Structures are given as structure tokens and as C-alpha cells.
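Batch manifest, entry 17 of 40.
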Amino acid sequence: MTDLAAILGTLNRPRLLVGAARKGLGLYRRDRDLVRILPQETRPGRAGHALLAAEARLEETRKAGDATYSITRHIELLTALLAESTLAPRAA
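Output type: C-alpha cells
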């Protein structure tokens, strides 16, 4: 499996979006937030990749200018991704 932190390092997202996600890290609680964001997958090794796939779909929606795009959801996903990338090495 590819390292989640390395994948996150290659993502090219707007600074404001990433900055907002970083601010949310202090408030992120895995037991509460991950279940709400991604109810189907909460195992540490798998949650990161499921979040990555969900974020990629949302990024495509953003780039397309689709009216269904939710910046709040995008920030939640990016915050969870950043948090999971720090948890992944400990879970392995």
C-alpha cells in the first residue's frame, strides 16, 4: 500500500481550502467525526484510502463548477485525510 502522507503531498488543492482543513485538525475527533464523514469505513488502514477516493470525487465536482459542490464537506474530508495520515503510521 502506498503511504497516505506521500499521496497527500502530491495533491494540488487551493491554499485556502488546505489552510481551513489544517485549522480543523485541532477540533478533529476520530471517534466522532470519521463515523459521520465516512460511515462505511472506519478502520485506520482503510479509512485513509476511502477518504482519498471521496475527496477526489469532490475535487472533480469543484473543478466542474457543479452546483452540488459543498466547500464544508470538502474541508471536512481534507481535515479527516490530514488526521488519518498522522494516524496511519501508528496503526501499521
